[in-house]
Design brief:
By secondary structure, this protein is α+β, with helices and mostly antiparallel strands. 23% of the residues lie in helices and 34% in strands. It is built from 5 helices and 9 strands; from the N terminus they run ββααββββααββαβ. Helix 4 packs antiparallel against helix 5. It starts with 7 loop residues before the first strand and ends with a strand.
Length: 229
C-alpha cells in the first residue's frame, strides 16, 4: 500500500511526521512510561475492529510523537486492482488532561490526497466542495464533532526537457482535524469516524456509492486515471 507522505497538524500549531511500522504502532500509546488510559485503549480497539469497504486498504503506522501524550495512526489507500486511486492518513490523539484548542480530550487529524484532471483542479469552487465532503461524510453518519479546522490545497506539475512527454499532473490534498464527541466512559465512536473518513477517501477517489441509493457519496468528475502502486 502506498502510504500518504507529508506532515500532519493537530489544528493547534503542533506538527510531526507519522511514519513507521505496524508493530511500533501497536506498542505506541503512552509517553514517559505512563499507563495507557482505558478510554484511549477502547478508542484504538474500536479502530482496529472497524469493518470497511473492500476497496480501502487500511493498516497501522507509527504515530506522531509530539502532538499529544497518546496517539495512534492509520494509513489507507483506495485500491482498484494494482492501482491506488487515493491515499491518506488518520491519527487519533488523546490528552487525558484535555486540550484548550481541542475543547476535549480526543482529536482526529487527517491527510487525504488524490490526482485530478487539470481542468477539474482549476475549478474555483473545488476547495469548498472538498471541505464540504469532509463535513458531509461526518454528518451523513450522524456524528457530532467540534472545532473543525483544515486546508484544501491544489498543486500542479508541468514537465520539461527529458520529461516533456509526461502529461501535466494535478493533485488535491485535504488536511483537517476535528474533536469527536465523547460517549460513555469518555470514549468517542472512533469506528464511525473512521468509516466517515473512508467515505471521504471514496469520494476523492471517485468510487461509486457504497450501496444503491446512498446519496452520501458524490463522485469526483473528470478525475485523472489511477496511479500505479
Amino acid at each position: 500500500m502506498a502510504a500518504a507522505q507529508g506532515r500532519l497538524s493537530d489544528g493547534a500549531g503542533g506538527m510531526d511526521d507519522a511514519k513507521g511500522t505496524e508493530e511500533e504502532a501497536r506498542h505506541k500509546g503512552s509517553h514517559n512510561g505512563s499507563t495507557t488510559p482505558p478510554a484511549f485503549t477502547a478508542a484504538v480497539e474500536a479502530l482496529r475492529a472497524a469493518r470497511l469497504r473492500p476497496q480501502i486498504e487500511v493498516e497501522a503506522t507509527r504515530a506522531p510523537q509530539r502532538l499529544a501524550p497518546h496517539a495512534y495512526a492509520l494509513e489507507a489507500a483506495v485500491v482498484d486492482g494494482d492501482e491506488d486511486l487515493a491515499d491518506g492518513r488518520l491519527v487519533l490523539l488523546h490528552d487525558p488532561a484535555g486540550h484548550e484548542a481541542w475543547h476535549g480530550t480526543f482529536r482526529l487529524v487527517t491527510l487525504v490526497r488524490a490526482e485530478l484532471e487539470p481542468e477539474m483542479a482549476a475549478d474555483p469552487l473545488l476547495p469548498d466542495v472538498c471541505w464540504s465532503w469532509l463535513t458531509g461524510a461526518l454528518q451523513a453518519r450522524g456524528l457530532t464533532y467540534g472545532e473543525p479546522s483544515g486546508t484544501v490545497t491544489r498543486a500542479s506539475s508541468h514537465y520539461f526537457g527529458g520529461l516533456s512527454a509526461r502529461p501535466s499532473a494535478s493533485q488535491i490534498e485535504i488536511r483537517a482535524s476535528w474533536t469527536p464527541r465523547e460517549g460513555l466512559g469518555g470514549v468517542p465512536d472512533t469506528a464511525a469516524h473512521l468509516s466517515s473518513w473512508c467515505d471521504l477517501l471514496a469520494q476523492v477517489a471517485g468510487l461509486p456509492p457504497a450501496a444503491p441509493g446512498d446519496a452520501s457519496i458524490v463522485t469526483l468528475p473528470q478525475r485523472r486515471g489511477p496511479q500505479s502502486r
